[in-house]
Design brief:
Length: about 280
């Protein structure tokens, strides 16, 4: 059997033709309304699309290919970031700072070999500064003991002294302490004697509290004084020099920031440049 194809009905062809004509009519009407605008006419004349009042639609393909009519990409304005000013003061590369010998008993004189090995790692231009810094640090323990031998230290924390192992010791550091051991007078005990505690058994947190305690006493003595002798101001500067160098050396960043802020509020703040020879001043 032969298959016969059905011809499209005349009704459907009529509606398809009518639909196409309506779309064409709408486009023409929109074009006429657009062209009647004076500003648009001027632009179209310049582009060659409108000529003698008639649209030249064949010109549009040429226009779109012209470089001057291509849309240029919008470039985002680049805002230059404000250059961060360098932090003032002395500094060393991080990998060298990590190699600094940090004795747990604060006896730098007993670490001569480690100190010498560290000095050999330094850039030549930094060795004199570090040598002077270590000289200060090496003398601090004796300086602190001289303070203790005049005034005993009792911790403000009622729980007692904080040890390196995390335990607490109820007691105070007496004037009988020396470079080898701290002599502790225990509380709530029947033993009248003194307990010996190695410096390395004391936590660094407690050590810095002790160091700051004696510096704060010096500040309190001078507060309210209208006139302070130059010798007293020099002594106060030395107190903070020791304290700041220790915090910087043992990488106590928060304490370093605290001590530097305190220094800025003191009458010796004008000597800040002397400290900048050894440390990088922390950001506020």
């Amino acid at each position: 059997m032969k298959s016969s194809k059905k011809a499209p009905s005349q009704g459907s062809s009529f509606w398809l033709l009518a639909y196409s004509l309506s779309i064409l009519l709408a486009l023409c009407l929109a074009a006429v309304l657009l062209v009647r605008d004076g500003r648009v006419q001027h632009k179209l004349h310049q582009a060659g699309i409108l000529k003698n009042g008639k649209l030249n639609l064949y010109k549009t393909s040429d226009i779109l290919q012209d470089d001057q009519y291509r849309q240029e990409p919008v470039l985002e304005a680049k805002t230059e970031e404000a250059a961060t000013p360098p932090v003032p003061g002395f500094t060393l590369p991080p990998h060298i700072l990590l190699m600094r010998p940090r004795p747990q008993d604060y006896d730098f004189k007993a670490m001569r070999e480690q100190v010498q090995a560290y000095m050999e790692l330094l850039p030549p231009e930094s060795r004199d500064t570090e040598k002077e810094r270590i000289r200060y640090l090496g003398s601090y323990k004796e300086y602190l003991i001289s303070k203790m031998q005049k005034i005993a230290y009792a911790p403000e924390d009622e729980r007692g002294l904080l040890l390196a192992n995390g335990r607490r010791l109820q007691g105070s550091i007496t004037m009988f302490s020396n470079a080898q051991n701290l002599k502790i007078r225990l509380k709530n005990t029947r033993n009248p004697g003194l307990m010996e505690l190695a410096w390395s058994e004391l936590s660094q947190e407690e050590f810095f509290k002790i160091a700051h305690f004696y510096v704060q006493r010096q500040v309190d003595d001078l507060s309210g004084s209208k006139r302070v002798a130059a010798a007293r101001l020099d002594e106060l500067f030395d107190e903070y020099l020791y304290l700041i160098l220790l915090a910087d050396w043992y990488q106590k960043d928060e304490l370093l920031k605290q001590y530097c802020q305190e220094f800025d509020d003191l009458p010796v703040a004008k000597q800040k440049d002397r400290l900048l020879a050894y440390i990088q001043w922390p950001k506020p």
